[in-house]
Automatic annotation (TrEMBL):
InterPro entries (alphabetical): PDDEXK_12
Sequence ranges of Basic and acidic residues compositional bias: 55-70
This protein's name: PD-(D/E)XK nuclease-like domain-containing protein
Region called Disordered, residue ranges: 16-92
Pfam families: PDDEXK_12 (PF20516)
Signal peptide (UniProt feature, chain positions): none
Domain PD-(D/E)XK nuclease-like: 165-446
Residue ranges, compositional bias (Basic residues): 78-90
Superkingdom of the organism of origin: Eukaryota
Amino acid sequence: MAQKRRLLQAWLDSIEPSGFQDEITPPAPKRARLRSSVLRSPPLTIENDSVDMSDVSRGRKRTGDKEAKARPIFPMPKRPKSTSPRKTKTKSQLEELAKPFHIRGFPSHTQAHTRLPADIRALYRQLFQAKNLMHVIPFELREQLRTEYLSETSVKPSSPAKGEQNTQLHDNAATVLSSLYHIGQRAMEASVYARHESAWNSLVHGPILDLVFTSNILGTDSMFSDDLQLPLQENTSVRYEQVTGASIASDALPMRSGTDTASLYSPSLAGGSVDYQSDITMSKVDNRGDSKRVDYVLVMDMPETAPLQREISRIVAGIDCCGMSHFNQTLYRAVAKSLIAVSIETKAELPQYDPLLQLGIWASAWQKRMYDLRRAIDPRGPCPRLVTMPLIQAVGHKWEIYFASDLGNTIDLFGPMAIGGTEDLVSMYALLSSLQSIKHWIQTIFQDSMTAWFMIGEEGDEEPAPDPALPPNDG
């Protein structure tokens, strides 16, 4: 046994230690396998000693070949400056509607009188004057504001009103001036503190609208030229209504081109209203469209005895789905029987999505609703063109207007045009003047156009015809 141990020990001593160490050392990981999972980007420089990322990842010292020739490297291509994606997206989405929008921009002043629709040319002239600060400062305050504002030749006070007591006019003008100072202060604070849209609406936009559409601002007739001196309908008033929570009714949803379903950009349904005329399937409506609502509408209120109001009430009574009667494109009861004339969308600052998209969808729904009601009254008769619909967007201090003109199968959208703002007192007076002109346009041209749309006789004293074309009550 001892002999065997000595032979085994002699054999072990004859083996070289270095060879044994090589055999038991584990092999290094394959470099090719590590590189295969990472896509190497081309180098951004033309240095000769480029860095091998595999060596860096393994913690090895770089041993680049200093004598290797540099490979030619093409410069990184410059990214072209693109137009605003917000505007591009808005345009493409509005063009995809079954009744598409064509955004025309706004013509120059010399071309506006021929290119704009006839029913808003007189309004345009008034807005153009307000934009250029002509006759926006009340005549009664000309001395009080002369030093600060009227020294500029571009700012001209309005003409004195006729047939009114100067003391009463001055008191009313002073009241409005005090309100504007207060609103201007709130607007400046909202901008400095970066307040949200709801704060702008409650502190700035709502109070501005309240001055024109609910308060009695006397002496404003002097702001209007002969272009708008049309007879006002008796007891017709214009009210603004906040509609931030009002969705588009299902029977007014605008359709997408080439499909049999409602627009994918349309608001979520606010009820079970169903279109009585159309057999279009409404099953694929995108419920994420709450952002397509607007903030305010200007509606026309008339006495129940007015011919147009009687016709509206008759139509609403004949269309009652699930206990929800409505005349406009929304089921919101505050405007159920009052014609929407103007829509307003507000933003605290320029958003990612253009507010024009919201206004466009809302206006498209209104036009669809008006066409459906017209066909219910006269299914076989030809339809004229609807009156042009003003659309207003207020982004921070800046107020602008668009005009949506009905062409039958398409809608031409003209704008934007500045109508004033809240950044200073003169801009607020320009905005007030613009809103007054819009109010007067609603009480005259808009009301006359909608009276003709629903085929109401000029006399207006005959009893309304029976309702054979109206659908039965489904409620």
